[in-house]
């Protein structure tokens, strides 16, 4: 086996380590137990929660280190953004699900492995094919032209894999959310707007948001112990316009306000309810519980999740 296959710190046999192209493992509702007991689940939720701690009380505009790998990933996202400009929506009878998205997606499908290769250090190239799968899963579905929290989860999985192989490190935490994830969100919003993508498995008015979930978790953590801004303030448009550059949560609210018409309480009932929770810490804990229940424990979301050597379906070692 090739010495270039650099192992994630958690894997003991560097030389013999083989990467694999991830595949689906959860094909029926009873398989969900296998997912919840898997190493992948433990690693995924651990990653989300580590980042949640890392951004606590911090503004998007605060100082943090930006490594060369982070810069390269931002370049990758910039490429996806440029391809949207180069692939304008086509004239078609249906308002939603513009077919030009499929053209855009085909380009990513073709280039994903090379794009991932370009962000990986020389000694980690062997992981490119495995990690590229998560990138392709992270931007929506070309058949249905939809996007939802399962696609968002694939992007978090993509970042988690980059951490596992050592391309991203512990001291990249703030840059992972404030730079990479934030840029990812802006590209996803542009995709959603440009190609009028459908929300995947949306709960409609009962869901948190048509498309995203993680920025609400991490965004609420940013607000923990804020001296003046409380959950009740985020429904005030003046607060949103004044502070959205600093807080991911408010960026999300701003996008909802741009995309939806009518009273906030009607189009975003769950968020309206959340604005009544007294503290950001309570909001944050509640959203983590809700994320597990509404996304990670829902078969329609997890049936699409793919497992390889980095995010493994094997049960957690006791």
Keywords:
single chain; 318 residues; mainly alpha; Four Helix Bundle (Hemerythrin (Met), subunit A); two-stranded antiparallel sheet; two-stranded parallel ribbon; 14 helices; 53% helix; disordered N terminus; isomerase; cytoplasm; nucleotide-binding; protein tyrosine phosphatase activator activity
What would your notes on this structure say?
This protein is an all-alpha fold. The protein contains 14 helices and 4 strands. Strands 1-4 form a two-stranded antiparallel ribbon. It has a single domain, classed as Up-down Bundle (Four Helix Bundle (Hemerythrin (Met), subunit A)). It is an enzyme of class 5 (isomerase). InterPro entries: Phstyr_phstse_ac (IPR004327), PTPA_C_lid (IPR043170), PTPA_sf (IPR037218). Pfam families: PTPA. It is found in: Cytoplasm; Nucleus. One of its GO terms (molecular function) is ATP binding.
């Amino acid at each position: 086996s090739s010495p270039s296959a650099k192992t994630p710190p958690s894997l003991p046999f560097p030389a013999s380590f083989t990467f694999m192209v991830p595949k689906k493992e959860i094909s029926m509702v009873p398989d969900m137990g296998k997912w919840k007991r898997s190493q992948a689940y433990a690693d995924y939720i651990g990653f989300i929660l580590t980042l949640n701690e890392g951004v606590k009380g911090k503004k998007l505009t605060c100082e943090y280190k930006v490594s060369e790998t982070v810069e390269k990933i931002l370049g990758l996202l910039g490429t996806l953004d440029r391809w949207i400009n180069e692939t304008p929506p086509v004239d078609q009878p249906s308002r939603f699900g513009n077919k030009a998205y499929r053209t855009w997606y085909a380009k990513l499908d073709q280039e994903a492995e090379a794009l991932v290769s370009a962000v990986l250090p020389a000694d980690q190239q062997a992981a490119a094919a495995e990690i590229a799968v998560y990138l392709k899963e992270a931007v929506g579905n070309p058949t249905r032209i939809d996007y939802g929290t399962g696609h968002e989860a694939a992007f978090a999985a993509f970042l988690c894999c980059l951490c596992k192989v050592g391309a991203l490190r512990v001291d990249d935490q703030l840059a992972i959310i404030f730079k990479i994830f934030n840029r990812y969100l802006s590209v996803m919003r542009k995709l959603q707007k440009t190609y009028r993508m459908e929300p995947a498995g949306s709960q409609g008015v009962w869901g948190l948001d048509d498309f995203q979930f993680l920025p609400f978790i991490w965004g609420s953590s940013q607000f923990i112990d804020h001296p003046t801004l409380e959950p009740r303030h985020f429904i005030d448009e003046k607060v949103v316009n004044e502070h959205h550059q600093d807080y991911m949560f408010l960026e999300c609210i701003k996008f909802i306000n741009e995309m939806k018409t009518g009273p906030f309480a009607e189009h975003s009932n769950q968020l309206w309810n959340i604005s009544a929770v007294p503290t950001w810490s309570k909001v944050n804990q509640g959203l983590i519980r809700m994320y597990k229940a509404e996304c990670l424990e829902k078969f329609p979301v997890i049936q699409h999740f793919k497992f390889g050597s980095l995010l493994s379906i094997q049960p957690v070692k006791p």
